[in-house]
């Protein structure tokens, strides 16, 4: 499988070029994050035009009345989705907060991973800026 990560190119290309590119480069991803979707995963995987099944693991955790995304009930539901995606030849993806889990999911056939959240990236960036500012204050005081 080849994974293509593309940006929309808004403001860097003309609208007509963006529309043409979007028609040729669109990937349809079905997000599975509730119990009904897990129950109907075989039917969902058979929908023509779906390129990837993405597991919303945190939302699925909440749907299963759990607080730990590694609870056995959550893992069983995730594996059910992964197995169905494999059975029907669909790419499968998920958010993975604990990077030590990657080998397991890769070996089961998951090929698309989100390794951080927008909130996490914003907090990390803000912390880096705060540290740079603090460093600048120390440097100025010397």
UniProtKB/TrEMBL annotation:
One of its GO terms (molecular function) is lyase activity. It comes from the Bacteria. InterPro entries: Aldolase/citrate-lyase_domain, HpcH-HpaI_aldolase, Pyrv/PenolPyrv_kinase-like_dom, Pyrv_kinase-like_dom_sf. Residues 14-119 form the HpcH/HpaI aldolase/citrate lyase domain. Keywords: Lyase, Metal-binding. SUPFAM superfamilies: Phosphoenolpyruvate/pyruvate domain. The keyword Lyase applies. Belongs to the HpcH/HpaI aldolase family. This is Aldolase/citrate lyase family protein. It comes from Colwellia maritima.
């Amino acid at each position: 499988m080849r994974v293509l990560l593309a940006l929309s190119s808004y403001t860097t290309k003309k609208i007509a070029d963006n529309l043409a590119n979007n028609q040729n480069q669109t990937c349809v991803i079905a997000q599975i994050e509730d119990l009904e979707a897990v129950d109907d995963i075989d039917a969902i995987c058979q929908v023509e035009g779906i390129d990837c099944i993405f597991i919303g693991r945190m939302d699925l955790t909440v749907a299963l009345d759990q607080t730990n995304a590694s609870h056995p009930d959550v893992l069983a539901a995730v594996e059910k989705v992964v197995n169905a995606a494999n059975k029907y030849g669909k790419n499968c993806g998920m958010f993975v907060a604990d990077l030590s889990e990657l080998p397991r999911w890769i070996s089961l056939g998951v090929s698309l991973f989100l390794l951080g959240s927008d909130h996490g990236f914003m907090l990390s960036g803000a912390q880096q800026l705060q540290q740079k500012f603090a460093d600048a204050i120390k440097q100025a005081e010397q």
